[in-house]
Amino acid sequence: LIGNNYKHEVLPQEETMGGFENLQVLGLDGCSFSGKLPAWLSKLTNLKMLLLSNNQLSGPIPSWINTLHSRFYIDISNNSLTGEIPLNLSSNRLTGIIPLGIGHLGALASLDLSLNNLSGEIPQSFCNLTNLQVLDLSDNRLAGPIPPELYRLHFLSELDFSNNDLEGPIPTGGQFQTFSNSSFAGNPKLCGSILARQCGSAEAPPVPITTRERTMAKTIFAIAFSAFFVVGVMYDQIVLSKVFG
Prior knowledge:
Elements: E1 25-27, E2 34-35, E3 49-51, E4 56-60, E5 73-75, E6 80-82, E7 85-88, E8 95-96, E9 108-112, E10 117-118, E11 134-136, E12 143-144, E13 158-160, E14 165-169, E15 189-191, H1 211-244
Parallel strand pairs: 1-3, 2-4, 3-5, 4-6, 7-9, 8-10, 9-11, 11-13, 12-14, 14-15
């Protein structure tokens, strides 16, 4: 951690920089560094915390940032980064709910959280990701409904919600008209025309018995019981008369 030092210098860009492969924490925040995110950071495969906030870094967020699979925290806020945000955290061991803050990354173009152990619901804030083109949440433990407002994501061309525990109707309209049923497979509680599974087809509850029906049932039972009692008494008298007659 060497944050708040090296004021107003250019972040080293040499790709040949080495010797930091086992580094787990790198804090360069608050240094007013300029320049781009250097490629040598991609070699820090054991990195668990990367702090680059409050600098003057510019340029796009490089795609290699998704290769740092061991990381659990990264902060590049308060810089001058541009372009689309690639966010691929698939095939990890992520648990808990999806952070609501992801829904405020307006420039996010691709979000892949597949093959993890995430739970909870799909955040409603995802409806704000109007630049999103790819959304993959497959193979998690997500539950609850699919936010219907997701149909407003007009640039969404790839979607995969398969193998979760989602439920309720699949949104219609917008890009949802273009996705195949494989995008929703493995969610037995989902319904909609795309799955040929009608919504609201659950078995109707039994019709309650009215007071009048209860009264009629009691009357019929009383009549039947009385008739049975009379027949029983008559039978006993016949038997007794034969024995003592």
